[in-house]
Amino acid sequence: LPWFGIKYIVLAGTMALILVILLLERPGRDAKKAFALVGPILLFAALYLAFLLHLYGTLSPQTVYLGAGPEGSVPLSRFIVSDFLDFLTRLPGYFFDQRAGIFVIAPVYILLLPGLFFLARRFRKETLLLAGLFSVFWAFCSLNYFYWGGYCPPGRPLLPVQWVLALFMAGALAFSRNRASLV
C-alpha cells in the first residue's frame, strides 16, 4: 500500500498490526501464517526504503512529494497540522460538513451508527478491530491539512476505509430486530 501514497503507510501498518495481534493469539498453530504475513510486508517495506534511499538519498517517505531538503530529509511537520482546533474541526467535518460530509452526501451512512452497536453486541472483538482501523485512518486524515478543499472533497481520503462503514451499515440491516426497524 505505501507504494500508492504516503497516507497508506498508516493504513498498512494498522492492518498489519491487527492481523499480527490476531495471529499471535494462537502462536503454536499460526506461526507459519504469521511469518507468511509479516515476511512479505517486511521485504516490501525494505525495498520501498531502499528505493527512497537510492532515488532521494533519504529514508523519509515525504521526499516523494516534496523532494529532498538541503540536509536530505523532510520533516514530518509539513504534513501534520499543529493547530489542535483545526484537527477537532476536521474530525467531525468528514461526516457533517455541509457541502461534502459523508452524512450529507449519502445520508444512508447514518445507519452505520446503529449497525456499529448491533455488530458490537454480536461480534465485539471484530467490531472493535474494524472500528479501530477506521478510527486510526480517520484521525490521520484529520491531521493532514492538504486534503481539505480544492478539487478534493473532504470525504475522498477516507475511501480506502469506507468499506468499514459499509459493513457497519450492513450490520444495521442484518441484525434489526423487527420489520418496523428494518423499514
Task: Briefly summarize what is shown.
This protein has 183 residues and is mainly α. It has helices at 7-24, 31-56, 63-66, 84-96, 102-105, 112-122, 124-143, 162-174, 179-182.
Overview of the molecule:
There is one protein chain. Helix 1 runs antiparallel to helix 2 (31-56). The chain has nine helices and no strands. With 183 residues, the chain is an all-alpha fold. 17% of the residues are buried. It starts with 6 loop residues before the first helix and ends with a helix.
Topology:
Blueprint: H1 7-24, H2 31-56, H3 63-66, H4 84-96, H5 102-105, H6 112-122, H7 124-143, H8 162-174, H9 179-182
Helix pairs in contact: 1-2, 1-7, 4-7, 6-7, 6-8, 7-8
The ordered string of helix (H) and strand (E) elements is: HHHHHHHHH
Low-confidence stretches: 72-77
- Number of H- or I-type helical stretches: 9
Shape: flat
**Mean of residue pLDDT values:** 77
- Span between termini: 39 Å
Strand count, sense and barrel status of the largest sheet are: none
Quick tags:
183 residues, mainly alpha, 9 helices
